[in-house]
Amino acid sequence: MADGAGAPNTGAAARRPAKRSLLVTIALLLLSALAFWGSSRLTWVEVPPGRLVGGRAVDDLNGADFVGWLVPMAVFTLAAVAAALGLPGQARRVLGAGLALVGLLAVWFAFYGGYEIEWSGSLPGYDGSGDPERTVRGPITAFTGAQLLVVAGVVLVARGPEMPRLGARYSAPGGESPVRDSDEDLWRALSDGEDPTSGS
Prior knowledge:
Blueprint: H1 2-41, E1 43-46, E2 51-53, E3 56-57, E4 61-62, H2 63-66, H3 70-86, H4 89-112, E5 119-122, E6 133-134, H5 137-159, H6 182-191
Antiparallel strand pairs: 1-4, 1-6, 2-3, 2-5
Helix pairs in contact: 1-3, 1-5, 4-5
């Protein structure tokens, strides 16, 4: 009696770590997207007043102006949240490997992308004092987002097949049938004009 009563609790306990891994993965991806977007808003290059880029005076250059890939990376990472929730087990491993690879590339591009600025002179009266300087806030924030993306990818590769999937209870025939509510079945049979006690 005790063994039978404890079986459902054992199954629930076994599903708990898998659900926790999914929540951790989603949190990592959301934080990564937030870091990429935040980096796009931060200053990457401090420009002295009077310097020209492409024939026009510019203020300090933020990540979106200087790098260009940060906002698309934020959108890509948000799309990965939906994919991680909806894909079946082994496909999550493929997704995780792809995310880890993209994250590693973003780590490199955050600091070693070789971004150049084509300065085109200065405004009249510019005394020439001060040079454009790169900041560390923007690259470090992008680097953090890339690291979070790598970790999320690794978790998906390691634990993806075990994680619950959004909409799994509506999976195609042949999959595991969801647990049905007996009371709900009785009321449905009565509303359909069937005899719920007939066993059919």
